[in-house]
Request: fold
Amino acid sequence: MLKKFSVIKQAAHKFYVDRFNIMYLNELNVRKEYQIRMSNRFATVENLNDSTDINSAWGNIEENVKSSAKNSLGLNELKQNKPCFDEECLRF
Reply:
């Protein structure tokens, strides 16, 4: 006997992710500023001792990279799509 299974369409989950404007890295002065910020931040990470939890150390590194990129590069603005239902559609 064959069982019928109903297929449930799951809603797509949208996650907010910071998208950095990496095109600015092509500019020499922005790239140097980013390199300086990263080297300064990782100098503090090198001073951590062995008793530090690896998860907290990784979180510290992740936060350093994100904050340096946000300050140096800025966030990439998302493009707004044109609405497919506009006033022209309303006239018909």
